[in-house]
Amino acid sequence: MEYTRRSVLTALGLGAVAAATGCSASGGTTQAAADGPVEGEINLLTPLFEGSTGKELLEGKLLPAFKQKNPNVTVKVDYTTYAALNEKITTSLAGGLMPDVVMLGVGWIPPFAHKKVLAPLPDELAKRYDYEDRVLEPSRFDGKLYALPMVLDTRIVTYRKDLFAEAGITAPPKDWAELRSMAKELARTDASGKLTRVGFDPFSIDLRQCWETFLFANDGNLFDEAGQQVKFDDERGVEALQLFLDVIKDKSADYSFKSSAGQPTTLQQGRSAMMMSNNSLWVQLKKQNPELLAEDKVGAFILANKVPAMLQGGTMVARSASSKHAAAAQALVEFMGTPESILPTAEQRGSVPGVQDLRTSDYVKNNGFVKLALDNMSKARSEGGTAAWMEIREKIKTTLETAVVGKRTAKEAIDELANLSKEAISRL
Predict the structure, then answer these.
(1) Are 36 and 46 found together in one domain?
(2) How many domains does the chain have?
(3) Which residues of 40-59 are buried (b: 16+ CB within 10 A; e: fewer)?
(4) Which residue of 157, 193, 270, 328 sits 20 to 30 Å from the alpha carbon of 91, by its own alpha carbon?
(5) Which range of residues forms the domain containing residue 51?
(6) CATH number at residue 264
(7) What is the pLDDT, as a whole number, of residue 83?
(8) In the chain, which residues have pLDDT < 70?
(9) Residue 31's pLDDT is what?
């Protein structure tokens, strides 16, 4: 069979993986054991060290340290972004050039492990450090460990303490009713009635991840434990999306009030009083608006409704099942999963370290959002949970967006997404 760029992209994840590997969940490919000599040239595909700072850290510090411990291994790095990572992997598979080591997002392990693209790791690696159970969950599939967590990226609510004080609000909202009420009170309009400040900005992070955070705070789930049944299409999933429509209707939120990546956020600009954020906002504030931190004008809290919940994304490192230098590839996986690699990686991105051992580091102590995340890991929930995730995740944002812009009701959008998800799962 001939694989073209178009056919791979059309397949979107699972289809492409199945075609490119020529296997199914019951088929399997030959997996090289990682018990040979630690030597050879291996390839690393990473979305984690983008930009000059990341490249300098990886190639100037981390890989030389790995080379010192493993002098017979040479590592070639292929940099990408998360936006292009799935395409990069599927086209690599189609060409028979799967990287030896790959860094993947939370939710990505089940799809690729299901199709035997990844090699399982020794389970004892999960016991090397003090991992929270929630951190290890996304690293497993079918009872086996397939990846080591590196850095986490949580979704929290940030707010302007000074704007709260001006409005006489003394504490963050405890549930969605309070969130909606406060958002109304904090929103501002000009003489013509045009919004100049939204009370709540849920739209400056990815709409998929934002809705998932609200779903989890409403005590909902994406899928059942087996990853075979859709669970988000009940009232909890609909209510999570409906809240976005409600705050827009209240004129306390606006879909056009969005921040571009790397640019000052609506919260920094004073154009929002509350905003859904990534914990990396702390580093951005230090660079762009250090006065907001110095004057204690920005705070953060964990979203809550029926339960408190924090979406846990992040990056994990895994070994390809087809690596010709399996021992070398596994050595790199193990090295990248050490605190010595994780801490500087987290620091340069403003991420949460994937191991609790680093809680006492100066980095964590001096980063309020990272500390908040680590203190609340018991409330963390992850996206994914089904082997069909790579196909489903591509459709969530565009489907939810139809409701946000008024083309569908919340229930219609959720029902449509549920149908698309059921179809994807049925093809496993």
Answers:
(1) yes
(2) 2
(3) bebbbbbbbbeeeebeebbe
(4) 328
(5) 5-153+313-381
(6) 3.40.190.10
(7) 87
(8) 1-33
(9) 56
